[in-house]
Amino acid sequence: MIEIRNLYKTFGSLKVLDGLTLTVKKGETFSVLGKSGTGKSVTLKCIVGLLAADAGDIFVDSVRVDLRDRKSLFSIRQMIGFLFQSGALYDSMSIRDNLIFNLTRHHKVRHNEADEKAVHYLTLVGLGRSVDKMPSELSGGMRKRAALARALVIEPRILLYDEPTTGLDPITSAEISDLIREMHSKFGITGIVVTHDILCAGIVSDRAGVLKDGVLKYTGTLNELAETRDEDVKGFFRNPL
Ligand SMILES: Nc1ncnc2c1ncn2[C@@H]1O[C@H](COP(=O)(O)OP(=O)(O)OP(=O)(O)O)[C@@H](O)[C@H]1O
Ligand SMILES: [Mg+2]
Q1: Is residue 109 assigned to a domain?
Q2: Atom of ligand 1 nearest to the CA of 35
Q3: Largest CB tally within 10 Å, which of 64, 75, 102, 172?
Q4: 13 CB less than 6 Å from ligand 1?
Q5: Closest of 150, 139, 45, 42 to residue 90, by C-alpha
Q6: What is the pTM of this model?
Q7: Residue 137 maps to a domain
């Protein structure tokens, strides 16, 4: 479903991705673990075509990500929901309107239908009684739920997450991770989750890998990763930040 082959990306003299290769199968959720500044967000941005790689290929459902090809980029973005590191809800709108805006503006859904879907997905993530609240009135965990609902409302086949549990306490973090897992199996979503949070990765992912020196150092189930002798992987498990 998502195939990344030999991806290279530098910023000036800074080498960030150095031949990164990854295949995520349909319905699978893969966690990209890695310390701060290793290129996790850059990788996600390359997949959705927000950043151009210097070399390498990315295929999303067999369509090549090519920033010069507007049409294929548009069709790829219609398939993908993206949860930004900051949550990125519009502060001046209720969460219901945040979802409606996403649908009417970016996915050409009519207002009535958008409203119905907005309430449906907010209810699904446990915010049915808070649909008319402003983002500023929500707790950190509720904001993450709202951001997840906003990503789900377009009914994506693929969801990409950038640190879905940062800033949450361990219990809320586990709740959000459970919710992600549940939504992926309910809707058959293929996912990539970028995170420092080993607990979250353990709940949401089928497989994971540690990003270091521009490549995924080791991929496997989280148990396999926790037991590997690879020094880089062990280093991450000892100190994930
Ligand atoms: N647009 C950009 N221009 C220049 N440098 C950038 C740009 N985006 C990212 N970088 C650099 O690339 C490196 C990787 O950044 P990235 O945001 O992918 O890190 P990350 O692994 O997501 O870290 P964190 O866990 O802190 O979010 C960093 O050194 C960053 O400064
Ligand atoms: Mg990041």
Answers
A1: no
A2: 25
A3: 102
A4: no
A5: 150
A6: 0.92
A7: no
Is the CB of 40 inside a 6 Å radius of any atom of ligand 1?
A: yes
Q: Is-contact 58 221, C-beta < 8 A?
A: no
Q: Which residue, judged by its Cα, is nearest atom 3 of ligand 1? A: 11
**Does a structural domain hold residue 134?**
no
Residue 50 amino acid letter: L
Q: Kind and range of the H or E element at 183? A: helix 170-187
The sheet with strand 215-220 has its strands ordered as: 80-83, 158-162, 190-195, 29-33, 207-212, 215-220
H or E element at residue 225: helix 222-227
Domain that holds residue 23: 2-88+157-238
Q: Which ligand is nearest to the CA of 10?
A: 1
Report the domain count for the chain.
Answer: 1
The confidence score (pLDDT) of residue 87 equals 65
Q: What is the pLDDT of residues 126-141, one digit of tens each?
A: 999 999 999 999 988 8
Rounded to the nearest angstrom, the distance between the alpha carbon of 86 and the centre of ligand 1 is: 14
Do 98 and 115 form a contact (C-beta atoms < 8 A)?
no
Q: What is the pLDDT of residues 174-198, one digit of tens each?
A: 999 999 999 999 999 999 999 989 9
